[in-house]
Design brief:
The complex is a heterodimer of chains A (133) and B (387). In chain A, 6% of the residues lie in helices and 43% in strands. By secondary structure, chain A is mainly beta. Chain A has two domains: 49 residues; 83 residues, OB fold (Dihydrolipoamide Acetyltransferase, E2P) (Beta Barrel). Chain A has a five-stranded mixed β-barrel. Chain A has a three-stranded antiparallel sheet with strand order 2-1-3. In chain A, strand 1 and strand 2 form a beta hairpin. Chain B has two domains: 131 residues, Thiolase/Chalcone synthase (Peroxisomal Thiolase, Chain A, domain 1), CATH 3.40.47.10; 220 residues, Thiolase/Chalcone synthase (Peroxisomal Thiolase, Chain A, domain 1), CATH 3.40.47.10. By secondary structure, chain B is α/β, with parallel strands linked by helices. Chain B contains 14 helices and eleven strands. The chains are: A mainly beta (133), B alpha/beta (387). Chains A and B meet through strand 4, strand 5 and strand 6 of A and helix 5, helix 6 and strand 5 of B. Strand 4 of chain A pairs antiparallel with strand 5 of chain B. The structure holds zinc ion (ZN). Zinc ion (ZN) binds next to loops of chain A.
Chain lengths: 133, 387
């Protein structure tokens, strides 16, 4: 399945910029056009999120999504960011045995996949465990 | 609002149906439902058909007209309803509302999906379009992965085990053996489930519902006219529907579906009943964890106790609340657009006392629960005998 070009051009994929509601102060990511709590009474301003969070849940994918076949097995998690929003991201650079719910992770930018053999490479965010100090 | 009753039901055999076409499949289910109701096609006022993605699966859109045409029912008002795997449940609800409002009298609610014309990778990709393409699928998510994320969190918070998940699959395969329309007529064991290849850990191949072709159909009538057609009309006592964020990660909880809770609340309220009144339920077990969460969210046990209820055998035939007597999505098969209608067919069959070897003795009230995607849509119906 080809990834439409406009997705690659969503800047939030590269800089983790969400929005903050001027009315309820909630930070939202992925960015939205309307605050789900205040709707049209809240004005949304860009907000740069801290690239840190915790693992809420994770899975090890053995039957890949289309375009991810060469990555199996890969780990996909739901990360709760320090700023509040939750994101879905692959957890990279570690073995599945090293992952636990509650682990602290940092968000980094990586290659996500390729379109076909001579296709364009596209990028996005992934999570990486922060070693306990 | 008028009371609405089901007066006829029909199904095709579920499974791989390479020898019949998309259009023949819906006719087969439709003719069975019309014959079951003893109604003439000329009396039908409207048709609602649930279908997720004929465009992707068989490269055919505009299927409501196609079906009306092939059934010889033109110029009947024909409408397609789409909400991923909840398309059938929503088509049923739209048909119920059309009759309840008084706008139409005799309405067909149907569902169909023909999935096995595509290779498995194509099916997986087509189903993935029901998830958030930009923020889930882009990251490499699949449907099994989304439910695996819920399963892992459920295990973490409540101590649910992989064995308990497996028991859902074992029970539903066992029930499917008693259903002539089911895709699988093979019993499986907990050990077989646990040893099946991983798909998205902790979910394994036998935790997942299969790829299925199938169609289902019911005929609805105003309750006051239902007895002209059948001695056992089944009343639609309550209907409820709710939405939630399309992305799993945007939800407040990973261990249940708020759309199910809300849809159930509305359906129970309309029916004037609660979960304790329900004798049996067909729930959306697209993955084993989905059944465990559903029986909690529908109120058959406390949050977190779904695994235990399953392990104690209370959801099996003969238990306190038999779940998925048809075999469910897991054993009967999951032709996505047909599933919500097929669930209603099973509940009606049970409430009429016509379910044969899988009959729940004295069943008077049944519930059908259908989910779209990872929980962005849920629809719940409560049905009961009219006598
Ligand atoms: Zn706000």
């Amino acid at each position: 399945m080809g990834v439409p070009r406009f997705w690659r051009e969503i800047p939030s994929r590269y800089n983790l910029i969400g929005v903050k509601c001027g009315n309820c102060n909630k930070i939202l990511f992925p960015p939205r056009f309307i605050c789900p709590h205040c709707r049209r009474t809240g004005k949304l301003e860009p907000y740069k999120l801290k690239p840190k969070g915790k693992v809420l849940s994770y899975t090890v994918i053995h039957v890949a999504a289309q375009g991810f076949e060469r990555m199996v097995p890969y780990i996909l998690g739901i990360i709760e960011l320090e700023d509040g929003p939750r994101i879905m991201a692959q957890i990279t650079d570690c073995d599945e045995k090293e992952i636990n719910i509650g682990d602290e992770v940092e968000i980094i930018f990586r290659k996500m996949g390729e379109e076909g053999k001579e296709g364009v490479i596209y990028y996005g965010f992934k999570a990486r465990k922060i070693p306990k100090s | 609002m008028r009371e609405v009753a089901v007066i006829g039901v029909g199904l095709t055999k579920f499974g791989e149906q390479w020898d019949i076409s998309f259009r023949e499949m819906l006719l087969e289910a439709g003719i069975r439902a019309i014959e079951d109701a003893g109604i003439d096609g000329k009396q039908l006022d409207a048709l609602y058909v649930g279908n997720m993605s004929a465009g992707q699966f068989v490269k055919q859109e505009h299927i409501a007209s196609l079906i009306a045409d092939n059934a010889g029912l033109t110029p009947i008002a024909a409408t397609r309803v789409e909400a991923a795997c909840a398309s059938g449940g929503l088509a049923f609800r739209q048909a119920v509302i059309a009759v309840a409002s008084g706008h139409h009298d005799f309405v067909v609610a149907a569902g169909i999906e023909k999935m096995t014309d595509l290779l498995t990778a194509g099916v997986t990709g087509a189903l993935a379009t029901a998830a958030d393409q930009e923020w889930e699928v882009y990251q490499g998510a699949t449907f099994p992965a989304l439910y695996a994320l819920m399963a892992r969190r459920h295990m973490h918070e409540f101590g649910t085990t992989e064995e308990q998940l497996a028991m859902v699959a074992v029970k539903n395969h066992s029930n499917a053996c008693l259903n002539p329309y089911a895709q699988y007529h093979t019993k499986i064991t907990v050990e077989q489930v646990l040893k099946s290849p991983p798909v998205a850990k902790p979910l394994k191949l036998l935790d997942c519902s299969p790829i299925t072709d199938g169609a289902a159909c019911v005929i609805l009538a105003p309750a006051e006219k239902a007895r002209r057609f059948t001695d056992t009309p089944i009343l639609v006592a309550g209907t409820g529907q709710a939405s939630d964020t399309i992305s799993l990660h945007s939800r407040q909880t990973l261990t249940g579906l708020m759309a199910t809770v809300e849809a159930a609340r509305a359906a129970y309220k309309m029916a004037g009943m609660g979960p304790k009144d329900v004798d049996l339920a067909e729930v959306h077990d697209c993955f084993t964890i989905a059944e465990i969460m559903a029986i909690e969210d529908l109120g058959f046990c406390k949050k977190g106790k779904g695994g235990q209820l399953t392990e104690e055998g209370e959801t099996a035939l003969g238990g306190k609340i038999p779940i998925n007597t048809s075999g469910g999505l897991k054993g009967k098969g999951h032709p996505v657009g047909a599933t919500g209608i097929a669930q209603v067919v099973e509940i009606v069959t049970q409430l009429r006392g016509e379910a044969g070897k899988r009959q729940v003795d004295g069943a008077e009230i049944g519930l059908a629960h259908n989910v779209g995607g990872s929980g962005g849509t849920a629809v719940v119906h409560v049905l009961r005998r009219m006598d």
